[in-house]
């Protein structure tokens, strides 16, 4: 099982999941109720006063996650892949689970055993938080008394049930995804405080009712104003940028950065974070040619300026930051991650990640040395390009940016948009010969 999947289900796992199960009971919702549930997980919603089956809700989310990402966190995914006999592949055993536990930090937990080679190999917690709008799957850390206690309970229960009903045998119950083969709750002591530490599980989830409509495309971006928007469906890049330009949040940040540019090149770079929760905040440790935007997992996007003494378009470092912001977006919503750069001469660009979470480079792919080398290469490419009188200043910058993407192995994985002073937006297409073509957005 992959253990380094780092995606946010809002991923905090913020999942934008699929399948019709996400919309079960939709017809029962009135317009008022639909608005109320628009930011909640429908799989955790009660209809007709029936109790919520939290255990089955977590199961549905992770099975849908596997279906979208071709991963094998669940047994059903391994079966559908045609390899049900792979006993060496670790998976979450949803047919055994703890009771639903509501902790003092307002999180709801259910703990499941992980199984490999016919025996319990670890523990995974399904966690529901923030008024049931965020889900996280957390692989719990071993080596503590609580883990040892719960691990022992599940190991014994799994062995007992396997001997009794052939839980791990081909053809037994549970091989049909509609037959959960649930043996009921196993009561355990609830974890104290915020629960035991852990990590490494997939994070994400249908961020709400609307995202279940077409979860493979989008939604779950920032709160209004920025690309996406809570509970939104897929938004074309042109529409994202139009929405961004119209938001007061964006207007205030862009004005601040343009005002900063009037202080001259010696003022260096300045940055702003578009946070997942709360108002935007200013970046720290600003320098001549750098800005520290902080933790990418808590961001929807970032803004900064270039002072005019280098290449006035996104650097390799900027692209790497975009990749990390995309990594922590809702599953299916990596394209909601964005970066904005402002530079002298009316330069204003926006970029979005253009791929799925499976296409995001592995964490740690870009070392400091590699980024430095790509930035130096970008500068040399720019020096060789600025003498080309057949290209506009925009075209020169865009050609350099396209070259940097190619060097980083991200050709056609990043959407670049130019915003001109009259708010005219153009999507910059990267051509195979290294040139670029501006495709104006319809107004």
Features:
alpha+beta; single chain; five-stranded antiparallel sheet; eight-stranded mixed sheet; 9 helices; 443 residues; 27% helix; 18% strand
How would you sum up this structure, described in words?
By secondary structure, the chain is α+β, with helices and mostly antiparallel strands. It is 27% helix and 18% strand. The protein is built from 9 helices and 15 strands. It has helices spanning 31-37, 54-69, 75-80, 145-165, 237-246, 248-261, 316-327, 368-385, 393-407; strands at residues 91-92, 97-98, 101-102, 108-116, 119-129, 134-139, 185-186, 271-275, 281-282, 299-305, 338-343, 347-353, 414-419, 425-430, 436-440. The strands form 3 sheets. An 8-stranded mixed β-sheet has the order 9-8-10-11-12-13-14-15, sandwiched between helices. Strands 1, 3, 4, 5 and 6 form a 5-stranded antiparallel β-sheet that branches. It has a two-stranded parallel ribbon with strand order 2-7. Helix 8 packs antiparallel against helix 9.
Helix and strand topology:
Layout: H1 31-37, H2 54-69, H3 75-80, E1 91-92, E2 97-98, E3 101-102, E4 108-116, E5 119-129, E6 134-139, H4 145-165, E7 185-186, H5 237-246, H6 248-261, E8 271-275, E9 281-282, E10 299-305, H7 316-327, E11 338-343, E12 347-353, H8 368-385, H9 393-407, E13 414-419, E14 425-430, E15 436-440
Helix pairs in contact: 8-9
| Largest sheet geometry | 8 strands, mixed
Helix content: 25-40%
Rough shape?
A: elongated
Series of H and E elements: HHHEEEEEEHEHHEEEHEEHHEEE
Adjacency order of strands in the biggest sheet: 9-8-10-11-12-13-14-15
**Strand residue percentage:** 15-25%
| Spatial extent as radius of gyration | 24 Å
Counting DSSP E segments of at least 2 residues, the number of strands comes to 15
Mean pLDDT over the residues: 74
């Amino acid at each position: 099982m992959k253990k380094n999947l780092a995606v946010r289900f809002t991923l905090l796992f913020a999942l934008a999941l699929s399948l019709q199960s996400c919309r079960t009971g939709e017809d029962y919702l009135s317009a008022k109720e639909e608005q109320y549930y628009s930011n909640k997980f429908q799989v955790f919603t009660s209809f007709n006063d029936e109790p919520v089956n939290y255990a089955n809700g977590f199961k549905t989310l992770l099975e849908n996650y596997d279906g979208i990402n071709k991963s094998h966190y669940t047994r059903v995914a391994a079966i559908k892949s045609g390899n049900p006999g792979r006993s060496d592949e670790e998976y979450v055993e949803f047919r055994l689970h703890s009771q639903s536990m509501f902790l003092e930090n307002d999180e709801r937990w259910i703990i499941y055993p992980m199984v490999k080679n016919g025996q319990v190999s670890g523990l995974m917690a399904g966690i529901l938080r923030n008024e049931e709008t965020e889900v996280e799957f957390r692989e719990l850390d071993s080596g503590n008394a609580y883990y040892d206690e719960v691990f022992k309970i599940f190991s014994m229960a799994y062995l007992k049930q396997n001997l009794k009903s052939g839980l791990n045998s081909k053809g037994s119950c549970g091989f049909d995804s509609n037959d959960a083969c649930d043996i009921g709750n196993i009561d355990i002591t609830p974890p104290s405080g915020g629960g035991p530490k852990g990590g490494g599980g997939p994070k994400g989830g249908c961020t709400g009712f609307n995202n279940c409509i077409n979860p493979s495309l989008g939604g779950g971006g920032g709160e209004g104003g920025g690309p996406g928007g809570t509970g939104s469906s897929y938004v074309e890049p042109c529409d994202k940028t139009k929405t961004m330009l119209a938001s007061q949040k964006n207007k205030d940040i862009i004005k601040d950065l343009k005002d900063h540019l009037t202080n001259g090149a010696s003022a260096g770079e300045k940055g702003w974070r578009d946070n997942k929760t709360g108002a935007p905040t200013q970046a720290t440790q600003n320098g001549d040619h750098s800005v520290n935007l902080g933790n990418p997992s808590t961001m929807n996007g970032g803004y900064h300026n270039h002072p005019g003494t280098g290449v006035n378009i996104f650097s390799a470092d900027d692209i790497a930051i975009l990749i990390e912001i995309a990594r922590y977006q809702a599953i299916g919503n990596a394209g909601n991650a964005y970066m904005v750069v402002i530079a002298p001469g009316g330069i204003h660009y926006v970029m979005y990640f253009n791929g799925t979470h499976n296409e995001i480079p592995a964490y740690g792919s870009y070392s400091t040395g590699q980024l430095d080398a790509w930035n130096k290469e970008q500068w040399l490419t720019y020096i060789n390009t600025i003498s080309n009188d057949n290209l506009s200043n925009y075209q020169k910058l865009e050609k350099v940016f396209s070259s940097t993407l190619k060097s980083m192995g991200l050709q056609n994985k990043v959407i670049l948009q130019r915003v001109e002073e009259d708010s005219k937006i153009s999507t910059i297409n990267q051509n195979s010969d290294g040139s670029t073509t501006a495709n104006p957005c319809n107004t």
